[in-house]
Amino acid sequence: MKRLLATAATFALALGGAAVASGAQAEPPRGAPGYPGITWGGCENATLKARNAECGFLAVPLDYAAPAGKTIELAVSRIKHSVPDGEYQGVMLVNPGGPGGAGLALPVLGDYVPKKAGAAYDWIGFDPRGVGASKPALSCDVKYAGYNRPPYVPSTRAIETAWLARAKGYAAACAKNGGALLDHLRTTDTVRDMERLRAALGVAQINFYGFSYGTYLGQVYATRYPDRVRRMVLDGNVDPGRVWYDSNLDQDIAFDRNIKIYFGWLAEHDDVYHLGKTAKKVERLFYAEQARLTREPADGVIGPDELTDIFLQPGYYVFGWDSVAKAFASWVHQKDPVALRKLFDDGNTQQAGADNGYAIYLGVQCTDAPWPASWQRWRTDNWRVHRAAPFETWGNAWYNAPCRNWAGEAGKPVLVNGVKAPPVLLLSETLDAATPFSGSLEVRKRFPRSALIEGVGGTTHAGSLFGNACVDDAVADYLATGALPRRLKANRSDKRCKPIAPPEATATAAKPTESAGLLTRLELRKLIGGPRAAG
Asked: Same domain for 428 and 443?
């Protein structure tokens, strides 16, 4: 799923005096025999090249129970600090979420921290095991999420049977292509990789910035290695007590609420889009068009599933509200499918390896904790939720259905406990659908030295460093000084901000306003989280 510039002497003392957490296995000291290293060189990624970043690979054990056995390689990147060494604040590992999100390009995130507070860190990106440029990278069937799928809602036994066969087939393809890797994709494996990366960087502590599922990585790392954590920003917090079957049912209800909010926004701007003057009218139009596309897909390929997938974006965050509205209006009024198809294709490419993120998403979710083996349990739960929240429930169910037949062995979820962790900054908007706000409150309980900032009433998922000054300035202050908002005694957020504002409803697309050399906000958004992220 999203605070005192230290003197050199103070910083050295803080790093040098850290002891590894009790019960967690430490990595070998730097220079020890078998110590993992990174040979830094140039980067192939254009964005990283433009920032003079360094890239390399880190060898880690495939199976930490057999550390001398087979190794795999993690792709790692680094943008060094630009402040004088006396103001250096250490390394900042970044994870974009997913699970399955590639983080190699994310060191650029330091450029977006206000007040130049990011300049004091070495920003470290990495593609987690099995992801992106890491070796090996898992891919199973690039056409699985493409066109010509059965409708999500299993209104007939034939549809249900077809989806069950598809899900089983995808799991089988992953078993064939992934082999032994599938038994070593749990969150705990990536947390061990992070600890190995810390050792390879030659530091006693890390700073960490996690979005969405990345917040769960941070929670587990801080549970296992609390003394290895210096500062940590967690934006869009996974509820550690609902991993993962229950959290997906929670998402279904939250996305249905958010899509109704989006329908209301469309109704407010009926003068621009002409899709209905009330949220109810827009909602009826959406489901009517979905039924029409079931009978006759637009351009022969945009059916009910594709329409749901396109509208899922506005359920995640406000950034694409206008573009989805324009595309839908073009279809409704001119029966022009071009814009709808482009939106779908942009998020569902069929290039080689395009399903890598999805394959790793399943590899983590299916093995972090057991999923119900009985299909009757799935059927009962999802029909129950569907009756109250029809927008996304069955789409989400089929997205996760390969877990019933997954080849990797499921483990036990980690009991997250942040009692020994240092002060942590938590962020969330109230109506985040991918990682509901209740999860942030739960993490706040488990991390008694944390503080939670809430974007009140907002629907954006993991949206820090996207221009909300109230939130982003607080992030900058924490990264600069370690300062957190004062923690309140109530079970609520500790600081409240206005949320990220919806876009202007316009007839033409707005032009980017980023400074030269920076990614646009939407380009950066694509690196973080994404549709159907776990958190």
From this structure: yes
Kindly name the residue from 77, 212, 450, 464 that is annotated as catalytic. 212
The residue from 141, 323, 461, 494 that is catalytic is 461
461 as an active site residue: the answer is: yes
Q: How far apart are CA 131 and CA 419, in angstroms?
A: 31
- Is 270 part of any domain? yes
Of the candidates 110, 26, 127, the residue with the CA atom closest to the CA atom of residue 75: 127
Domain end residue (candidates: 307, 331, 347): 347
Based on the fold, state whether residues 450 and 321 are members of the same structural domain.
Answer: no
The CATH number of the domain holding residue 64 is 3.40.50.1820
| Strand order from edge to edge, sheet including 121-127 | 54-61, 71-79, 121-127, 90-95, 206-211, 229-235, 425-429, 451-455, 495-497
Burial status of residue 212 (CB atoms within 10 A of its CB: 0-12, 13-18, 19 or more): buried
Cα–Cα distances (Å) from 407 to 100, 112, 182, in that order, read 18, 40, 7
Q: Are residues 121 and 221 in the same domain?
A: yes
Based on the residue annotation, tell me whether 212 is a catalytic residue of this protein.
Answer: yes
- The closest of 96, 61, 89, 107 to 217, measured between CA atoms, is 96
CA atoms within 13 A on the CB side of 355: 20
Catalytic one among 250, 432, 472, 494?
432
Based on the residue annotation, tell me whether 82 is a catalytic residue of this protein: no
Closest residue by Cα to residue 130 from 344, 410, 412, 357: 357
Per-residue pLDDT band for 378 (boundaries 50, 70, 90) equals very high
Residue with tokens 């000291």: 29
Q: Binning pLDDT at 50, 70 and 90, where does residue 532 land?
A: low
Beta strands in 109-217 (DSSP E): 121-127, 206-211
Cα–Cα nearest to 458, from 498, 496, 491: 498
238 and 265 together in one domain: no
Specify whether 455 is located in the same domain as 319. Answer: no
Q: Is the pLDDT of residue 18 over 50?
A: no
Domain count, the chain: 2
Which structural domain, as residue segments, surrounds residue 250? 245-347
Helix axes 393-400, 245-268, angle to 10 degrees: 140
Q: Tell me, yes or no, if the pTM score tops 0.85.
A: yes
Tell me the helix, strand and coil percentages in the chain, rounded to 5. 45, 10, 45
